[in-house]
Design goal:
This protein is 41% helix and 20% strand. It is α+β, with helices and mostly antiparallel strands. It has two domains: 81 residues, no CATH class; 105 residues, no CATH class. Strands 1, 2, 3, 4, 5, 6 and 7 form a seven-stranded antiparallel beta sheet that branches. Strand 6 and strand 7 form a beta hairpin. Helix 4 packs across helix 5 and helix 4 crosses helix 6. The longest helix has 24 residues. Pfam families: YaaC. InterPro entries: YaaC-like.
Amino acid sequence: MFGNLAFIHRAYCLTYNTPSEMLMPLRNPIYMKDTSTNEVVFQAEVTGRNADLRRLQNLSPDYHIVDGEHHKKYIIQRKDRIAWYRRGNTKADREAILSGLADYHAKIRCDICCISAPTDLWYLKRTVSGTKIVNRYGLTLMLAAMHRLSELARYDPQGLATHLSGKENWLLTEFIELAPSQFVDELACEMTGLEFRLPGVRS
């Protein structure tokens, strides 16, 4: 579970010496309408050191590269698309298409995760050795991890003490300190349908 949470993923990799990070940073994640086919598809940019074909080989099989290396930037898209409505469609048709978009979005949210921060920090899970992709939302993973820590504290305090005095201490500390704000932020987004950000701090 910890390996699938973006806000502590690097701490997880350092704790267990995993060979590479599972999460790939994304920029400008959007839903784009292809006017030639009248379909909507999820698209994002991969930049920086991750804009490398060797790293992109580990993309999830649900995604592919559609445009390559312009100013050290690659465009990736999800392979499946959804048909969009046209002029003349009935209200029922539009509602059905919007319902399809909601289902499409629900699938993508298991692949894409974010870190609550003053700026956009989006990540795509990719297949790498040493970390297993858990096909669940971030909120579910955080709640499950919190529940497990609660179980240890109540029923196996010696086991928890062993973790806290071992190499996992830093990872657990990071999770305990950062999870509450991340959890509340994602929960607020779920309840309102809006995006929230931590306020920036001016020096």
